Amino acid sequence: MQGHITKYRPDLGVGIIATDDGQRFRFAATSVVNPHGELLAAEVDFERADGRADGIILLRGNPWTVFAASQRA
């Protein structure tokens, strides 16, 4: 699915992703595959898992950013 991060609390490491059709999903910062830069307002691609967002990829930068981050994890 795709959406954008509408809320993010860096002190708690949690936030909300909203999709274009109005659905909202909670997420943990640990679910972000490429957590480089600001998360708030970022466009994302993600998978749904038990009503939450998981496997979140920030859709900015270049593809190497995503692959380099996932190789280190």
Task: Characterize the structure shown.
The chain is mainly beta and 73 residues long. It has one domain: Nucleic acid-binding proteins (OB fold (Dihydrolipoamide Acetyltransferase, E2P)), CATH 2.40.50. It is 14% helix and 45% strand. The longest helix has 10 residues, at 63-72. The model has no long low-confidence stretch (mean pLDDT 88).
What are the SSEs and their pairings?
Layout: E1 2-9, E2 14-19, E3 24-28, E4 43-49, E5 52-58, H1 63-72
CATH class: Mainly Beta
Strand content: over 45%
State the helicity in percent bands: 10-25%
CATH H-tier superfamily: Nucleic acid-binding proteins
Number of helices: 1
CATH architecture: Beta Barrel
Q: Which stretches are poorly predicted, pLDDT < 50 over at least 5 residues?
A: none
H and E order? EEEEEH
Structural class, from helix and strand content?
mainly beta
Radius of gyration: 11 Å
The main sheet orders its strands as 3-2-1-4-5
The count of DSSP E runs of length 2 or more, i.e. the number of strands, is 5
Largest sheet: 5 strands, antiparallel
Integer count of domains: 1
Briefly note the CATH topology name.
Answer: OB fold (Dihydrolipoamide Acetyltransferase, E2P)
Shape: globular
Q: Name the average pLDDT.
A: 88
Measure the end-to-end span.
Answer: 23 Å
